[in-house]
């Protein structure tokens, strides 16, 4: 399992990074991204503290990627914040997409897929084919999520992503211990979004790009 979208106590997650990583190891993870919610008010704080979790790579057979999830930031401010995050050492920049579950500002998806500094557009709701094509061209991954609520539009994301030729990935958006999943379950999440087993396996393989 390679999961680039999880949260710790440095935003709204329940676990400190060491427990989050340890539980991921038990689930068979090869890599985990700790991507706590961030805006201009806390991005330095999040990255400074989460980066200390890199020591766990010396203790466990797992890669720990330090990142942020840019969340509810006005679309025209996403680009400078994503750039700032990368300059501060973020290895993964996720943007909180236009899920139907929250009042995300319209235009967030469009602003995010245009940026080289964005790695993953999370739970992008009813993303348009035009935005998915731009994501393809700019190598921004579109997320199929295991997270309850956000996953209601997984079928749409998978269909539009495949039609556009965009890169799809499966992540958990983990906030609590029970949100972590195995690779086998991730395959079921992708197939549940309407992909064939072969397509679903290819989607899981897309996350190999995040390994060193």
How would you sum up this structure in a few lines?
This protein has 212 residues and is an alpha/beta fold.
What profile does the largest beta sheet have?
7 strands, parallel
Summing up helix and strand content along with how strands pair, one would put the structural category as alpha/beta
Outline, from the CA principal axes? globular
Percentage beta strand: 15-25%
Distance between the termini: 15 Å
Number of helices, where a helix is a run of at least 4 consecutive DSSP H or I residues? 8
Strand order of the largest sheet: 1-2-3-4-5-6-7
Q: What is the helix/strand order?
A: EHEHEHEHEHEHEHH
Secondary structure: helix percent: 25-40%
Cα Rg: 15 Å
Tally of DSSP β-strands? 7
Uncertain segments: none
On the 0-100 scale, what is the average pLDDT? Answer: 98
Strand and helix map with partners:
Elements: E1 2-6, H1 17-26, E2 31-38, H2 43-50, E3 63-70, H3 75-87, E4 92-96, H4 108-113, E5 120-122, H5 129-137, E6 141-145, H6 154-164, E7 168-171, H7 183-192, H8 197-206
Parallel strand pairs: 1-2, 2-3, 3-4, 4-5, 5-6, 6-7
Provide the descriptors you would attach to this structure in a database record.
8 helices; single chain; seven-stranded parallel β-sheet; alpha/beta
Explained architecture:
The chain is an alpha/beta fold. A seven-stranded parallel β-sheet has the order 1-2-3-4-5-6-7. The protein is built from eight helices and seven strands; from the N terminus they run βαβαβαβαβαβαβαα. Helix 5 crosses helix 6 and helix 7 packs across helix 8.
